[in-house]
Amino acid sequence: MTSTSLVEPGVGAAVAAPALAARTRGLRKTYGSTVAVDQVDLDVPDGAVLGMLGPNGSGKTTTIRMLLGLVQPTAGEVELLGHPMPSGAQITLPHVGALVEGPGFHPFLSGRENLRRVAAAEPLMATPAIASSVTEALERVGLADAADRRYRGYSLGMKQRLGLAAVLLLPRRLVVLDEPTNGLDPAGTREIRRVIAELHAAGTTVLVSSHLLAEIEATCTHVAVLHKGSVVAQGELDELLEAGAPALLVSTPDVELSLDALRDKRIAARSSEDGLFVELIGTTAPQVVKALVEAGASVHEVRRRRTGLEDLFAQLTEGEPR
Question: Which CATH superfamily is domain 20-241 in?
Fold first, then answer.
């Protein structure tokens, strides 16, 4: 399947390419006769929050594991923070925080004790800073009150929070979160959104893998859509959502009058839940508004219609027509 590009060939050739926190070219991973990842070219812009979106089994986690040097690619190239992987792991991974396929901790130790062990293994963590860094990370993910309880008594959501706390022990250049809201209640989901926003504001690049469309749309600046092991679209979220057929949503109480006026002008329109849906084919937004005003229709609001991530995802992964 061909990847969708947002930039036409030859356009903006003089503009320098953005710095990338992570990059893959021709990435492929097979397990016997099963192709898990196939020719993935992925760009993660420096400082972006990129959502890796796809159905279960689309290759998201396998791609992440190859990015982090946890799995050897069958073919292709991987760069992380400017260094090839997995050969550059010793240089790059201390600057990367990752939560992949759920956290793993010692069940008979408390959350605080588990986190202290993780902090002690961090090559960039000074020993005198461990206690304060652990306390701050626990507070940041809402586990301060449960910090001294044994890990085996934690709920799935609490285990996810502790895994996130391990990522937040010290400042990172890149944070990778694989299904970070798994097992979380709505309050926990909001906290994950807040943490991602804080990381983004601090200049950290964040890569979030999820199959939850609402979470990607709420937190990400960029999106890469995977389907059957391949990237089928990637780019800035706003640009992807604007890539569908241009249309307007018009809020008006005079639906029938408006429809008649637009049809007289040969402008395609239909009634919608809030008023009118107007296709901008062979016309412009000012021409639509002019036709409605001249017909005497009350126009309360006019806004451009965005494709919506759910519609875009369906188009890319289910073969629905644009």
Answer: P-loop containing nucleotide triphosphate hydrolases (3.40.50.300)
